[in-house]
Amino acid sequence: MMKTFSKGMKFTVIAACACLLLSATAWAAPENNGPYTSTRYSQSITARDGGTISTYVYTTSAAGMRPLIVFRHGFSRSKDVLNNYGTHWATRGFNVILPDSRTGISPDYTGKDSNDMIDCANWAVLRSATAGNYLTGKIDPSRVIFGGHSAGGYTAEIATYKNVAQGEGNFDCAVMVLYDPVPTDVGYSETIAQSIAIPSVMLYGVSDICNSFGAGTGIFQNTAGPSYGIYVKAADHCDFESYYTSACAIACLKWPFGGWDSTKNNEVKRYGTAMIEAYANCDAAAYPYINGSIAKSDTKIEIYTESRFLDMPPDNCQ
Is the pLDDT of residue 239 over 80? Predict the structure, then answer.
């Protein structure tokens, strides 16, 4: 049976379609929240040494097995300063773990700190394979993303190296995402980067005391896989956390007149998220942000000329 519409019905349908199109466009930008629901759990995870890792676990309402992001905070900070990232990524279809450091002001980046990131991912993969819990059937072990901010970025680099080069973990790292990373051993960070052949994005801010005057740029220059280096213009080190805190502003000598800017933080979210969605999800909507037309026309960033092997679509997506 053929159905016809009155003029009023036609207008309603056209308006509804327009609203749907606008809604899709609004959340499609990587820095915007997505269409899914985020649920946060406070979760204690047992580490390999028997200690307890305090974490926030964010689950997405997206159906099926989804990628897992494990993202680590910087030196003397906490998981709370990354909370908005956890929510953001979960609304875009990712499960997320934000672990707290157990080492405080005496870090052990090559040992306990990086091991904890691997232990968190191992735990999530095992929980996904176990019936009757909030992660059952939700984690794709072939799509794990390690990332972090500041010294947490250095921690994430070491954890990534342990997985891709040394075979640690019951999962495969798919992407590495570092926000203004600060290595305490520059030589070591550059050496292990040469064994990291998975896609990676590193976003940097202004060279200053809080990022050890750009010490982490050598990581990007040495990674072996598709590598995306971006300078977020005029961004302070604190702009890479998910919201303003006076503690970061004071520590980085930006208080009371600076320390966090939402516009610059949106740039951080835009390109960090786009890299994950392009390589872990094969999402064509993310491709123009990966050294493509949108990124090249974005006046708020500068793409480092050493960025390489970023042809879209990625090899694994063809």
Answer: yes
